Amino acid sequence: MATDGIRPPDHLAALADWQAQFLETLRRADPATPIPWLAPWTVEKLVVHLARVHHWAAGQARRVQEEPLGRGPFDLPELYAACALEVREALAELDPDARAWALVDDGVPRGEHTGTVRFWHRRQALETLVHLWDLRTAIGEPLDVDAGAWLDCLDELVTVMHPRQLRLGRVEAPAARLVFAPTETDARLALTGSAPGAPEVVLTGPARSLALLAWGRVPLAEAADADGGIEVRGDRALAAAVLGAGLAP
Q1: What pLDDT digit, counting tens, does each position of 199-245 carry?
Q2: Per-residue b or e along 78-96, where b marks 16 or more CB atoms closer than 10 Å to that residue's CB
Q3: DSSP readout, 143-161?
Q4: Is the whole model's pTM more than 0.70, yes or no?
Q5: Which of 197, 202, 205 is CA-nearest to residue 226?
Q6: Model confidence over 61-82: pLDDT tens digits?
Q7: Each residue of 44-58: b (16+ CB within 10 Å) or e?
Q8: Among candidates 33, 26, 125, which has minimal Cα distance to 78?
Q9: At what angle do helices 117-138 and 11-26 cross, to 10 degrees?
Q10: In the chain, which end has fewer C-beta atoms inside a 10 angstrom radius, N or C?
Q11: 162 near 248, Cβ under 8 Å?
């Protein structure tokens, strides 16, 4: 998605960069540090989760079942470095247009599958971005990432992750049509699946704030009340209920 001169990142380059930042950050983080918005997760749980996701995604891209990593305990930097390299090497090696097992095909008839290796370029980069924010925020450190990456992150949730949740029956149809309006662009990203005639609620704010809101990292009340935060046009309680139901796994 590229709008108004704001372009998404080069996903493989971004993946390598954000993985390196994640590894560097976890080396100085206390594994027992809690992550309140992912409670009861700690830094240790976050690191193991992202390592497992990288390992699993490498198998999905290759269309092979991954070997279990075991239950641990793990040397966290060693585990993460190995799994990060595994998925990065797999994605660099494979033809981006080759068929792959991909989340876009979950709940879709087999004859209509469209998943390719390229899907995992974006999915792994953005998975790492969100969890890098989790890690940095948990230990009280900032994360400087440009608006294009956060806009891409928001777009993926609206166009890929939430529709998948609906297809799999994991969430009900939204009671309101949520429209995300990033202030850096004229783009308007609307959730699908709401009933005809459902009320519309427009959420306006920086792409970063909207992405973190949509991914469940910040509640609407906090995001809307923050200085320079998100403006809500429409039924705020209804929007909070839709967001609270979870837009992604």
Answers
A1: 999 999 999 999 999 999 999 999 987 776 899 999 999 999 999 99
A2: ebbbebbebbbebbeebeb
A3: ----HHHHHHHHHHIIIII
A4: yes
A5: 205
A6: 999 999 999 999 999 999 999 9
A7: bebbbebbebbbebb
A8: 26
A9: 30
A10: C
A11: yes
